[in-house]
Amino acid sequence: MKLRYFSHSAFQITTDEGLRILIDPFLDSNPTSPVGADEVEADFILLSHGHGDHLGDTLSIARRCNALCICENELASYIASQGIDAHSMHIGGGFDFEFGRVKLTQALHSSSTPDNVCHGAPTGLLIKIKDKIIYHTGDTGLFSDLKLIGELNDVHTMMLPIGDNFTMGIDDAIRACEFVNPGRAIPMHYNTFPVIEADPDVFCTKVRAKGIDCRVMAFGEEITI
Ligand code: NI
Ligand code: MN
Question: Which ligand is nearest to the CA of 50?
């Protein structure tokens, strides 16, 4: 399958069967995204939480592409209230979709809907496609149950924030990698705004020193995993 990085926490997975899964598609208002919302296609949109830099362009993309949104319950209710198909889940629960299995994990953060009516929970996303588990942690601080997530899941690729201020910074993200022990780490949620400036190469060098593979993806780059 293919994994494309748009910058911030926005990714796209394209399965071998051609299904397109967007994650946290913050594109039009994202100063670092090389593509706009009109330039992406999606069959499914996975959301870690409702903050604007994650919900992003979900509504317009889902409406145009007739995509199914998959996320935590309160955010799913908001999305459904906007006339968009949403599959509601919650932390600890998994469900089998056409492309594979999604399980929501804990994340140490907050969440809200754009109308501020509901404040649901922030989540991480464990995405199992065939035999590969991709773990998008969402926005989170460091928490020790990452060890348990690593014990229970043979994570192939882990995307995690390094930008500090709103999430883990580099040092805590390195510890998170040690806890989960993924096949490969990919840094995210950095350099979008001045307040989350971080050097992904410094992070990757330090992660590799721990014996874990790490890959900095350029904004817009697509790799095969
Ligand atoms: Ni957030
Ligand atoms: Mn964020």
Answer: 1
What residues make up the domain containing 120? 2-217
Tell me which ligand sits closest to the C-alpha of residue 9: 2
> Which residues are found with C-beta within 5 Å of the ion, ligand 1?
51, 139
Distance 196 CA to ligand 1 centre (A): 12
What are the phi and psi torsion angles at 162 (to 5°)? -130, 0
Q: Is the pTM of this model over 0.85?
A: yes
Number of structural domains, the chain?
A: 1
CA of 54 to the centre of ligand 2 (A): 6
The yes-or-no verdict on residue 116 having pLDDT over 90 is no
Compute the C-alpha angle 168/172/176, nearest 5°. Answer: 100
Q: Which letter does DSSP use for residue 51 in this model?
A: S
The three-state secondary structure class of 112 is coil
What is the number of alpha carbons within 13 Å of residue 119 lying toward its C-beta?
2
* Sequence-distant (≥ 6) Cβ neighbours of residue 18 within 8 angstroms: none
Ligand closest to CA 49: 1
Q: Note whether residue 197 is domain-resident.
A: yes
- What is the whole-number distance in angstroms between the Cα of residue 38 and the centre of ligand 1? 23
Whole-number Å distance, alpha carbon 214 to ligand 2 midpoint, is 21
Considering every ligand atom, which ligand is closest to the CA of 196?
2
Handedness of CA 210, 142, 128, 9 (dihedral sign): negative
213 beta partners = 184
- Residue 36 covered by a domain: yes
**Lowest-confidence segment of 29-38, 116-125, 181-190 by average pLDDT:** 116-125
